[in-house]
Amino acid sequence: MMRSLFSASTGMKGQELNIDVISNNLANVSTTGFKKNRVDFQDLLYQTLKEPGAPVANGATYPVGIQLGHGVKAVANQKIFTQGEFQQTEHPLDVVIEGRGFFQVQLPNGDIGYTRDGAWKLNETGLIVNSEGYRILPEMTVPPNASGINITTSGAVAVRLPNQNELQVIGQIEIADFVNQAGLKSIGRNIYIPTGSSGDPIPGVPGTQQLGEIAQGFIEMSNVKVVEEMVNMIVAQRAYEANSKTIQTSDTMLQIANNLRR
What we know:
This protein is α+β, with helices and mostly antiparallel strands and 262 residues long. Helix content is 22%, strand content 28%.
């Protein structure tokens, strides 16, 4: 059986995955704090029919050999953690991280999740939570009689209370970073959890230890660029089409061989 049939099939499978990733990127173009994915490919094993440098008669050697590849495989689906654009909202609980770092939230199972989504809300008791109701860590409660919320670049959260001239600090936002951000595992809801590849979280105060600073009244948009993804989609579609043509050509060649008569 012709190798090209199987090599081209791996190419089609690879481009199917590529289209899946691109479609997910485009679907999340308006998702707060979303980070786009990229598929990395590798070529498969080679069958060596003639070894490069193998000896020939009279002490000569082959300058090049003959190696036949067996297609392609996807080896990674990597998150690209470049900064997304900031959108001004003027909402006091909307914050962004200007630089590296992740907000920390308390997951229902007791673990800590990490997110770039800084669109915070208040629950019924005044706790600062995300859209899923997960509490920001360290926990902070806004008093019901507070008239305003102020968040500094270093993450200090203060409110103005009645009959007080000075702002009252109610908590400190801490963020965390990882040696290998791409090693984090996405679990949906704009949340990541650490893995053995990401390394342990490195918590700290915003603006220290190479962590980003906090900006109030903004949200970080997705870092997906629509035009770039559309171009990637066209390339993937044409690559899929070319591989399908290879299968058709190989099938035609086999048909010709089967129709040979003595």
